[in-house]
Design goal:
With about 210 residues, this protein is α+β, with helices and mostly antiparallel strands. Helix content is about 35%, strand content about 25%. The protein has a 5-stranded mixed β-sheet, with helices on one face. A two-stranded antiparallel sheet has the order 1-2. A two-stranded antiparallel sheet has the order 5-8. A hairpin with a 2-residue loop joins strand 3 and strand 4.
């Protein structure tokens, strides 16, 4: 018993000395927790191609990285795709992925907020959809001349109208000396996100009332 007691005492003493010699500071704890909360964002190629500058809804230059939503990250397979727009009731984001040296969207924070407000009424169930719009500009004034859906149309008609109205409000700056557009036809890709706000029974009741 004495030997066992001595062995346990020595073991406890060794453990105590080891802990004292390797203290874990608050700085270490903080750095470990921060590495978990803030993962490293991996840089990704520009979706519009090598050398293309990316601009956000504020007209600021941004980089493509793994922290972006997948819709913004993916490589563009359509040479005429210039803009990507993500709309939800809590977020409005734009990425211009090509030809920022020729044409740029003028920031419109007020219009962006209105688009978010429009989406709130459709927050019924969790739902993601997309659409693509072809824009045609007047060759002299650079103003909107034509707008139409291209390839993909959102499945909810009212949401499709919101997207079309959103694209029609865009104003552009052209880099030519006289202000005439260099690019007059291009694509805007949209992704919309709805959040669950009502139960299926509530939605059924709403649809029955509309009938």
């Amino acid at each position: 018993m004495k030997i066992l007691h001595l062995f346990l005492s020595l073991g406890f003493l060794f453990f105590f000395l080891f802990c004292q010699s390797t203290p874990q500071t608050n700085a270490n704890l903080n750095s470990e927790s921060n590495s978990e909360i803030l993962p490293i964002k991996e840089s990704l190629p520009a979706p519009g191609g090598e050398g293309e500058i990316i601009l956000n809804e504020k007209g600021e230059e941004v980089q493509n990285h793994s922290g972006e939503i997948p819709f913004f990250q993916k490589k563009s397979e359509l040479p005429t795709e210039l803009f990507r727009v993500y709309i939800a009731s809590d977020s409005y984001m734009v990425r211009q992925i090509r030809h920022t040296d020729k044409i740029r969207r003028k920031p419109d924070p007020g219009g962006d907020e209105l688009a978010k407000e429009e989406m709130k009424k459709f927050d019924l169930l969790s739902f993601v959809d997309d659409g693509m719009i072809t824009i045609g500009l007047n060759t002299i004034t650079g103003k909107l001349e034509s707008i139409a859906f291209d390839r993909r149309v959102p499945r909810i008609n009212d949401v499709a109208k919101i997207i079309q109205n959103d694209a029609s409000r865009f104003n552009y700056e052209h880099s030519s000396k006289d202000g005439t557009p260099i690019i007059t036809k291009f694509l805007i890709s949209y992704q919309i996100r709805l959040y669950p706000g009502k139960t299926r029974d509530e939605i059924k009741q709403m649809l029955q009332k509309k009938k």
